[in-house]
Amino acid sequence: MAETSELQHIDSDGHILEHPTAMPDYAPAEFRDRIWHIETDEDGQEWLNYNGARTPANGMAAAGTAGMSDEERARAFRGEMRYTEVRPAAYNAKARLQDMDEDGIDLAVLYPTMLLGLQSITDVPFTVAQARAYNDWASDHTQEGEGRLFAAGAVPAMHAVGDVATVADEIRRVGELPGMVSVFMRPNPAVEWKPFNDPVYDPIWQAAQDTGLPIAFHPFLAPDLPGASLGLRLPAGVLFSQALANPVDVMGSIMWMTAGGVCERFPGAKFIFLEANGGWIVPWLERLDHHCRKFQWEVPDLSLLPSEYFRRQCWISFDPDETMLGFTARSPLVGADRIIWASDYPHPDAKFPGVTEELAEALEGLTHEQMRQITSESAKALYGIG
């Protein structure tokens, strides 16, 4: 097995479960009752209150079952586990540090769980309030992490051209918050199905360039925004949306950022592609390069090939057990310095404990410098941490 015990490990895409009660305190009074929170009734039943709907909270407990026994996970998936019974580290910073220590993780960048789906809500003013409340809470959460926790900011929904400015405004605001090192968007062209290289989105890329915050394209399991799930009429459910729609939507985002000219127009912007595996990235860049060479009259404004933009401005996340990690690290189209790794903790598919040991197996055969890039240095360059 590769020797990685002396290396620093930075988890570039861990997750927080939304705190059951904290976020309303960060919201304006007019939205406070609708901001994500859980209430417990007189019978001890927990209820999620979110955007005017009241639903049983138990169904979300499965998202915080990393490290639990098969029996406990089964109980959670049957809806028999209370939300507040999830792994404490799911939304407690001190407990998170203890679990990170157990796995030899030095630093972690945290993305939310259910709020990954925020951008599909049609009430845009509410999504502005919800994004701001989450971002302010997440910033405070990182301050409890002894310098080891960082977070990605949420952005409001954008369903019409006029909504784009609100997204850009929140990116600029997040750039001023302590502990916030990126913002996330779903890899779905939400404004009237316009692709991401359409000028309508340019204020977002400009805000990312101006603030230095990377834009992280992070999929969500719901088929409720333009993209592969809706376009291919995939059945509802986690399996098909995550197996097919996640990589398809992320591949499309890479195409628009590189071959579509976004990286050409915004050379200082940084883009991250998450939770869609990474073993396909080399052949995808080869295909994009090939098509840009053969049909160059369709992309007359590009000064570089798609793979060259990727090497300059983009990073892709691998799961620690992906067999193509080593191949991709050796490829001149990607390289170890463009690869980050993600634990997905505390979600049920996360390996805990043992994720860094699993990563070490995938790094077998790489040079020490390539290992160092993947375990920590790429994340440092991307997020500006460490």
Q: What structural keywords apply?
A:
386 residues; TIM Barrel; 36% helix; globular
Outline the structure in words.
This protein has 386 residues and is an alpha/beta fold. The chain has one domain: Metal-dependent hydrolases (TIM Barrel, Alpha-Beta Barrel), CATH 3.20.20.140. Helices cover 36% and strands 13% of the residues. The chain contains 13 helices and eleven strands. The protein has helices at 70-77, 93-103, 124-142, 164-174, 202-211, 228-231, 238-258, 262-265, 281-294, 306-313, 325-330, 355-362, 368-383, and strands at 10-15, 37-40, 46-50, 53-56, 107-111, 149-153, 180-185, 215-217, 271-273, 314-318, 339-341. The strands form two sheets. Strands 1-5-6-7-8-9-10-11 form an eight-stranded parallel beta sheet. A three-stranded antiparallel beta sheet has the order 2-3-4, with no helix packed on it. It is globular and about 65 Å long. The two termini are 26 Å apart.
Oligomer: single chain
CATH architecture: Alpha-Beta Barrel
Question: DSSP helix count?
Answer: 13
Number of domains: 1
Can you describe this structure in just a few lines?
With 386 residues, the protein is α/β, with parallel strands linked by helices.
Draw up the topology in text.
Blueprint (H helix, E strand, L loop, with lengths): L9 E6 L21 E4 L5 E5 L2 E4 L13 H8 L15 H11 L3 E5 L12 H19 L6 E5 L10 H11 L5 E6 L16 H10 L3 E3 L10 H4 L6 H21 L3 H4 L5 E3 L7 H14 L11 H8 E5 L6 H6 L8 E3 L13 H8 L5 H16 L3
Parallel strand pairs: 1-5, 5-6, 6-7, 7-8, 8-9, 9-10, 10-11
Antiparallel strand pairs: 2-3, 3-4
Helix pairs in contact: 3-4, 4-5, 7-10
